[in-house]
Amino acid sequence: MRLTLLFLLLSVPTSHFIKGAETEQDFTWHLQKLPLIVSQRTFHLDRPKFQAEIKLELNGACGIECQKTLPLPSMSDLEDCLSYETVFENGTRLRTDVNVQGFLPQAESENTTSVKGRLRQKRQVYGTDSRFSISDKQFTTKYPFSTAVKISSGCSGILISPKHVLTAAHCVHDGKDYIKEARKLRVGLLKIRSKGGGKNRKGSKQRKKGSSDAQDPVMDASTLNMKSLNKRSVEGSQNHKGSRRNRGDSRGKPSFQWTRVKKTHIPNGWLKGISKDVALDYDYAVLELKRPQKKKYMDLGISPITQHMPGNRVHFSGFDDDRPGQLVYRFCSVSDESSDLFYQYCDAEPGSSGSGIYVRLRDPRSKKWKRKIVAVYSGHQWVDLNEVQQDFNVAVRITPLKYAQICSWIHGNSADCTHG
User: Fold this and answer.
1) Alpha helix locations (H) across 36-116?
2) Is 411 a catalytic residue?
3) What CA–CA distance (Å, rounded) separates 377 from 357?
4) Is 156 noted as a catalytic residue in this protein?
5) Which of 250, 277, 366, 411 is catalytic?
6) Taking a C-beta distance cutoff of 8 angstroms, is the pair 397, 342 a contact?
7) Where is this region: Disordered (predicted)?
């Protein structure tokens, strides 16, 4: 029954979710001039101890309600938070101080409006589980699902270049020290082995690298239809223990190709010495791989307000702990937002933290729909709400400042990061 309802939903064109006076023109990626984040000085720090334990649920984090009570950060505060640490594979650690140029704080605050009329609910997974395990190689090896990666610390991430992965900061650092698993961090890319255990045939055609949607079949809830989505390719939440379907597709079983992480970048805003508390706003990190990958990656995008998302919906895929080895896809509506955070209703379990949250909007030049990453799934977090701890599923939005910072980490300088 649940799958039947999903099939009906997925067969509805994106434009059918446009309401009121909104038109497709509202659902467009807009080119924005970015602030520049310029490195000022770099100096060595002591080697990390790598003694922290990973925590996939954070207590006392500053969420949307907490943010409303805080004064707007000064430029000095922003520069402190956007300065960053880099840890190399050999344990060397650097700090880089930055200078922010061309940034208007009021423009950032105007980039969001509170979503009214919806009540936030306790959320991890309860009631009907709305997640779908992607088990057929027709889907797992195709864009956008193929951009999801597994982090050896137990989290998920997403490819944002041939050799860079975006994930959550708490997947490698607890705010005081790097976690034990970050000492020899690895990233796993989902592969399909043949029934005999070998790799795909050599000489088979490779898709052109890049991040354009134009060359790939549209493979998410925005456009999947009943013909391409079936019980074999996308499983529902029911567990079929011992069944052939639960053991993997007969044409091949999923496995991971693991690659070492060469360096890790974390914003200082995540460090308790800077923020004086765990600040979800800066719960993101970028991992640089030792070897570039041939898989397609997904572009970054500056997070639009939810009214400018078709159906107010977001999408993401990750490797939830309760479904080992399976890629789990979900989509849902955003229930509340600040300039830095989303609260959303996506069912998720530990292990999906660090997943890249994306939306599809129209590219103004090609006129085609294009996916971009607009947030990082921070996970199931406990936040202070009216002096009471409540739990929500939280995502960190990609703001113009964060976009500029992540872009500079990818390119190694800010000169290639002037527009987003």
Assistant:
1) 64-68, 75-82, 105-109
2) no
3) 6
4) no
5) 277
6) yes
7) 191-256
Q: Which of 136, 146, 161, 170 is catalytic?
A: 170
b/e string for 56-78 if b means 16 or more Cβ within 10 A? bebeebbbbebeeeeeeeeeeeb
Per annotation, catalytic residue among 133, 303, 352, 353:
353
Q: Where are the domains of the chain?
A: 36-103+131-192+252-411
Q: In tens digits, what is the pLDDT along the chain, a chain of 420 residues? A: 443 334 334 434 444 444 444 455 578 998 888 999 999 999 999 999 999 998 877 777 778 877 778 888 889 999 999 999 999 999 999 999 999 998 876 555 444 444 443 444 444 554 467 788 877 766 777 899 999 999 999 999 999 999 999 999 999 999 999 999 999 999 999 886 655 544 444 444 444 455 556 444 445 654 444 334 443 344 443 343 333 333 344 445 668 999 999 999 999 999 876 555 557 899 999 999 999 998 899 999 999 998 889 888 999 999 999 888 789 999 999 988 999 999 887 888 889 999 999 999 999 888 899 999 999 999 887 766 677 777 778 999 999 999 999 999 999 988 888 887
Is the domain spanning 36-103+131-192+252-411 CATH 2.40.10.120? The answer is: yes
The alpha helices in 165-312, defined as continuous H runs, are: 272-275
